[in-house]
Design a protein that fits this description.
By secondary structure, the chain is an alpha/beta fold. Helix content is about 40%, strand content about 10%. The strands form two sheets. It has a six-stranded parallel sheet, sandwiched between helices. The chain has a two-stranded antiparallel sheet with strand order 4-5.
């Protein structure tokens, strides 16, 4: 059955919309329904940002299904960094910004590899010289260059303020509270190496790092009166577990001219930013999720186990930070009318006599439930429950062999299970 088009004039309302759910299947259903009911013009490609090729394939199958769009064509799947760079080029001009950055990780690797031998005599690089002292074959130099290239690649996304300070000769670090502290003596090689990398580049390439271009991009978008010609009218971000503040700032800025839809996987229906350390960094007057009833206004670490889920508190810091960053840009009242629901939290239905162990863990995280009190009645788990399993293998090859055998067993036991259901 062909999807009903809700927007026959093919005009798109710009804005920044965030749809949250604890189930990726529900997010996928809403995303596919929105794209089918609000199509772009002929020969205009959809642009969807994902964090892996597996997620892209999963979405393609849903778009091509009969209850989706019936076909998956004219869709560009991008990784966040590539999408951000293409947005820079669209706004700042393709003739001024190259197709790939001279500060890309692969290019930085070879540049650092070439510079390292000449740095041994500089006092700031004594820690690196000590590490490379017995490197006769050059293997350690290559490994070090690869690690440093990855480090500076991450700094460009997550710590652009550090790089700006280092380029200006200020050897310091800033934290999320705006406080500054000087670098330790054994870390002074980092800003010095960044300055050496910049000096090694041509003048036109020197100021084309993502940290510098990001500031120019935000200024250009803020001052623009019309949508840049190369900018897509819609951008969909689906299932990305975490985005840097720089990328979210860019997407929020672009929402002045294009429709930006974020489909966010959030495992908990309640506000949970204050159950993890450093929660004072995320204190806000307004949060989208409500606090769970019966919980004190202030949680002290000694009482966390009585009011919060321990797994979420132990492993949820990255997700907490991401949802906290989203709250800075999210204005639900501006787009709530476009969707039946924007918070799609639900308990997955399970076949059988009772919830599996995995289902109980998911439900506890969804409801921000603490551990049962000592002596309290605990939920029962069936004797043959295999929804969560811990397997010990003596090598990585054996891990893959075990996984292969388990998957074959699951496919044979459940004829409805398809390869598309495995990630």
């Amino acid at each position: 059955m062909a999807p009903r088009i809700q927007n026959p004039d093919l005009e798109l309302e710009p804005g920044f919309s965030v749809i949250q759910s604890n189930r990726l299947e529900d997010l996928r259903h809403v995303a596919v329904g929105w794209l089918a009911g609000n199509p772009l013009r002929p020969l205009e490609n959809e642009r969807i940002v994902v964090q892996s090729n597996g997620m892209a394939q999963w979405l393609k199958l849903a778009l091509a299904a009969d209850d989706g769009c019936g076909i998956c064509a004219g869709v560009d799947f991008l990784m966040p960094a590539r999408c951000l760079w293409e947005s820079y080029r669209s706004v700042l001009g393709e003739e001024l910004i190259p197709e790939s950055s001279p500060y890309d990780k692969e290019r930085l690797l070879w540049r650092i590899l070439r510079l390292l031998p000449g740095l041994a005599g500089h006092q700031a690089f004594a820690p690196l010289a000590a590490y490379l002292a017995d490197d006769r074959e050059g293997r350690k130099r290559y490994q070090l260059a690869a690690r440093l290239a990855d480090l500076f690649d991450q700094y460009q996304l997550y710590r652009a303020d550090w790089l700006e300070d280092w380029a200006a000769g200020r050897d310091r670090l800033g934290d999320g509270r705006g406080n500054m502290r000087p670098l330790a003596d054994d870390q002074l090689w980092q800003p010095e190496l960044w300055r050496r990398l910049r000096a090694d580049m041509s003048p036109e390439s020197r100021d084309s790092s993502r940290a510098v271009l990001h500031r120019r991009f935000l200024e250009a978008v803020a001052g623009a009166q019309t949508r840049p010609a190369g900018l897509s009218r819609r951008l969909v971000i689906f299932g990305v577990s975490s985005l840097p503040a720089q990328v979210l700032e860019a997407f929020s800025a672009l929402s002045r001219f294009c429709q930006v839809l974020l489909f966010v996987h959030n495992p908990c229906r309640y506000h949970w930013a204050d159950i993890i350390e450093d929660r004072e960094l995320l204190r806000k007057e307004w949060w989208r999720q409500q606090k769970k009833s019966g919980r004190p206004a202030e949680l002290v670490p000694e009482l966390l186990h009585q009011h919060a889920n321990p797994l979420l508190a132990a492993w949820g810091r990255q997700g907490r930070d991401y949802i906290g960053l989203l709250a800075e840009h999210d204005r639900p009242d501006s787009y709530r009318h476009n969707f039946a629901e924007i918070d799609l939290f639900s308990v997955p239905a399970e076949a059988g006599k009772g919830p599996s162990l995995l289902g109980q863990v998911q439900r506890a995280i969804l409801d921000l439930a603490p551990l049962p009190e000592p002596g309290a009645e605990k939920n029962q788990v069936a004797a043959g429950d295999r929804s969560i399993a811990f397997l010990l293998a003596h090598s990585r090859q054996r891990e893959v062999e075990i996984l292969h055998d388990r998957l074959l067993d699951l496919f044979e036991a459940d004829p409805n299970l398809r390869p598309r259901d495995v990630i």
